[in-house]
Design a protein that fits this description.
binds pyridoxal-5'-phosphate; 37% helix; single chain; TIM Barrel; eight-stranded parallel β-sheet
Length: 217
């Protein structure tokens, strides 16, 4: 695990631009593996199922920041609202409203990313890029949410080079909205890149990668 981590960190140094946050995706991992990774210094852990997260939660090392990266059902928001550090996968306005409502209830301001279905895939969640302006201006009105950036999942290609154009498009959107200066909207994190394609995502300007397989194999 330590060697895997050193390898990914070397790749970040080689391909990344500036500060990059590594989120260790622990969705298929045991609690022990998760805590080992945290002990190695990776505090950012990503889970994609509420149920799995809740099972592990009581025994996760306290030095952790929990990222929620999977599709989030509205009726589960209340279960994670007090522990989540960043929700990457806000993919509908109804979900944003529910996160805002629950955040208000517990007295938190929740950091979120807006998920973009950049390749317009049928089977993927996320907003279409054409809707982003309207979505961001509405989320900007929700007082207990703070948009910290954008998230995407690239289509799965045999050759990850084929995903480069989508990463590039995301970086253009990220820079565009960073300059619009909406209330409550800060374009701080561009969350893109998984085991298959993170080097290319980094080259194209990702500053937050979500890695499972390459760390835990
Ligand atoms: C599982 C998952 C990852 C990590 O995938 P790997 O290919 O194992 O690195 C990243 N992001 C999301 C949203 C995931 O569900």
């Amino acid at each position: 695990m330590k060697q895997n981590l050193q390898h990914v960190q070397a790749m970040i140094d080689q391909y990344g631009h500036g500060n990059v946050t590594l989120v260790a995706v622990t969705k298929y991992q045991t609690l022990e593996a998760m805590n080992q990774m945290i002990a190695l210094g990776i505090a950012d852990v990503g889970e994609s199922r509420v149920q799995d997260l809740l099972l592990k939660l009581p025994e996760i090392s306290p030095e952790r920041r929990i990222h929620f990266i999977g599709h989030l059902q509205r009726n589960k928001v209340k279960d994670i609202i007090e522990v989540v550090h960043l929700i990457h996968s806000v993919d509908s306005l109804r979900l944003a409203k529910e996160i805002n409502r629950q955040a208000k209830r517990v007295g938190r301001v929740i950091d979120i990313l807006i998920q973009v279905n950049i390749a317009k895939e049928e089977a993927k969640y996320g907003f279409e890029e054409e809707d982003l302006e309207s979505v961001l201006s509405q989320v900007a009105q929700m007082e207990n949410l703070r948009v910290q950036g954008l998230m995407m999942m690239a289509p799965l290609f045999d050759d990850p080079e084929d995903a480069r154009c989508y990463f590039r498009k995301m970086k253009e959107l990220f820079d565009y909205y960073a300059n619009l200066n909406y209330n409550n909207v800060y374009m701080k994190y561009l969350s893109m890149g998984m085991t298959n394609d993170y080097k290319i995502a980094l080259e194209e300007g990702s500053n937050m990668i979500r890695i499972g397989t390459a760390l835990f194999r």
